[in-house]
């Protein structure tokens, strides 16, 4: 399943559905359905490998795989789907390039602000992660 997850990132990259890193895929762990795998934050979709995946529990706590920041807002939204619907095995989300561009050019955290307005607690990556 992890091979397919890595392959899905490459398909999304090749089809130019997104610009680089603006999104995520969250899949249910086939061995332990209470755990999930997600891509690390700020890793270009065209470069993601199986070893890049982050293994998390339903609370979003890293329990294995690569220890890296994840898209907390995306995790919160999709983990709710996974918790409510045991038949859901995967969710994919992408952020439209124009929206991400507006956020970058205005220097206003639109994506984090939108998540916070929805009641999702803000989590910030350490500066060393953000510089990557």
Description:
- The protein is an alpha+beta fold and 132 residues long.
- It has a single domain, classed as 3-Layer(aba) Sandwich (L-fuculose-1-phosphate Aldolase).
- The radius of gyration is 14 Å and the shape is globular.
- The relative contact order is 0.17.
- β1 and β2 form a beta hairpin.
- A five-stranded antiparallel sheet has the order 4-3-2-1-5, with helices on both faces.
- The longest helix has 13 residues, at 2-14.
- It contains five helices and five strands.
Give structural attributes.
132 residues; alpha+beta; L-fuculose-1-phosphate Aldolase; five-stranded antiparallel beta sheet; 5 helices; 5 strands; globular; Aldolase_II/adducin_N; Aldolase-II_Adducin_sf; Aldolase_II/adducin_N_sf; actin filament binding; Class II Aldolase and Adducin domain-containing protein
